[in-house]
Structure formats: structure tokens, C-alpha cells
Amino acid sequence: MTEHISILKVRYAETDQMGVVHHGNYAQYLEIARIEWLEKIGISYKSMEKNGIMLPVYEMNFKFKKSAFFDDNLKIHTSLRKTPDVKIIFDYKIYNQEDELLTTASTILVFMDAKTKRPMRCPEYVLEKLEISA
């Protein structure tokens, strides 16, 4: 499945007194990368929500290998693990500007009907976009 690379610059407010990115910021980094990945294959997260489909995070895992620092340019490689069903699973690798692997991560999100708040199967148009981009 297609991979997308997002570039993010670490802001001072995202670091602690040692200049190291606080671990709590990584969830936002993954969200930015995931939304860009969806946009790359032609899916607007905003329009999904307008159409009554939500994608809450069910599970999030990180392995922190090296620290990211203030002013680093992070490259977040985002890929889909498998064809989605009720769940969509993303894998991430975060590198710094020296191409050192800093963090690996994964997220599991669940397709949910906004009205019923119940899980649902991946919409057909999402599956079609995935086939086109493969």
C-alpha cells in the first residue's frame, strides 16, 4: 500500500527543558501524518465526518529509540498495514534530518457511524481509493 512522508519541524513549545520533544506530542505528529496520508489518496477527513463517518483512535503504540530535539526536521513515513475492514491500521517511522530512526509507532482506528456511535465497515469509496493508489 502507498506510503506518504510528512515533514514537520519541532517547535520549541513541544520540548522540555533539555530541548527534547515531550512524548505527549507524538500523538499529534501521527494525526498530522495520517490526515496527510488520507489526503494523498484523495480522502478528506473533514468530508468523512460531514458524511457521518468518524475514525476514533482505538489503540496507539510507540517505541522511542532516540530523542527528537527542538528545531529538528522530522520525516514521518506513514503506511497502511493491510486493507481496512472495521479497523484501519497505520504504521509509522519517524526519522530526523540525518535519517536516524527515532521512533516507530502504530495506530488502530475504528470506522464509526456518527449517529449510532457503532462500529461500521470501511466505506466502499475508501476501499476504491486504496485500489487506485496501490
From TrEMBL:
Keywords assigned: Hydrolase
Enzyme class: hydrolase
GO molecular function: hydrolase activity
Pfam families in UniProt: 4HBT_2 (PF13279)
InterPro entries attached to this UniProt entry: 4-hydroxybenzoyl-CoA_TE, HotDog_dom_sf, YbgC/YbaW
EC assignment: 3.1.2.-
Family: Belongs to the 4-hydroxybenzoyl-CoA thioesterase family.
Name of the protein in question: Acyl-CoA thioesterase
Organism listed in the record: Zunongwangia endophytica
